[in-house]
Amino acid sequence: MANSYQQRVLRRQLSAADYLGSRGADGIDALRRLVAETEASDGEALVALPRNWQCAIPLKGACMNGHVRTLAYLVDACRADVDLVDEETGDTAAHVAVSWGRLDAVAWLLVPVGARHDVRDRAGLTLAGAARRRLELLDRGDIDAERLRARGMDIDALRDEGAQLAKLLGAVERAGGWSAFAAKFPQRPRVRRAAPWLGAASDRAALAVCFANAVRAKDVVKVVEVKTTAAQQRKRANALSKRIAAAEYAAATAAKASIRADDPPLEVALLNAGLTSSAPGEHNLVDPVFPRALRWLNATTVDDVRSLEREEVSQVDGPSSADRRKLWLFCVAQREALETAVTEATKTAVAEVRELEAVKRAASRPVDPRAAIAFRVPEACFVRIARFLYHAPRPPPTPPPLDAEILGLLEGFVRRPPPPG
């Protein structure tokens, strides 16, 4: 009885962890608190959770939604076991990620110390086979398209992603495994994200070759730059225009908010503008004709004054033509002060964007990798860069095996058999 209750508690704990993993960034804090628990209950008494129970947390939820950061936390910090297989479906975490078309999650699970590409599900399909079958179903329309569209999914985007997934896993299968595939293509974006240490190793090798060439080339300096095409120039210009427009809008909004926050009360602004009374002894008071005229125009703040038009001011009854002119000049002065502040702010913002673009372009001039590059590199510089590259991330450590106690309490899951040989 106690053992049955402990099973229920563990299943409840693992189910909660799987759900929080499916929420990605929204559930990571609650997930951290949950995995720190050593006791739990299922509505009755608290019982101790098995040691290292976190290793049995399912990765299904995180794989279904493609939350790679959550997967990294579960595997690296919680040491969740990627070898667990659902006995009913034969699916591993990688199979779940494939069935949902989560490209980055699949690539991350296939890092050298992670999932195997050749494990088969109940239908006898490897990861590549499962990806090809999913793509066939999408192409034939056997998947309920209306249901997917109702959930906000783009069928064409799913097909494109499915094609990429099938292509990636097919290449891994032909290469004989992820390690062999990634070693050939360490600079591919998906490989660099999933196994950054391979890209760093490739960088170190390239740096060593450059250094050797530099030593042999002596004083020869030859850098071959790739010419930018007209299409690339248009694309860069459009991107720069968008950044400038966004910076102008943000700067103008901030400047307007700042000016309006600093606006004095209307009476003080009138007094500062010199619209004082002409009566003897009242030179430090605002001439009442101006506040009355503004009240008649429904202007109670300085910002209201900025929106007044000349025709509105000229139609006010009571003030003389000279007073109406003074009032209109006051309105113009308030409007010009705001426009000047906005203009200066937008000029500064545009200058900063252009300066950043110039620095970015100077730092990333494209170099033709096919050209023979021979240049002199100071040895101290080479050593410094090489040491920096050697600090690249390393693969996560191999997780400890699940304790027999946890395996005994789990229902419906087995560990994936070790690779042959």
UniProtKB/TrEMBL annotation:
Annotated InterPro entries: Ankyrin_rpt, Ankyrin_rpt-contain_sf
UniProt entry keywords in alphabetical sequence: ANK repeat
ANK repeat spans: 89-122
Gene3D superfamilies the UniProt entry points to: Ankyrin repeat-containing domain (1.25.40.20)
UniProt xrefs under SUPFAM superfamilies: Ankyrin repeat
Protein's UniProt name: Uncharacterized protein
Species the sequence originates in: Pelagomonas calceolata
One Pfam family from the record: Ank_4
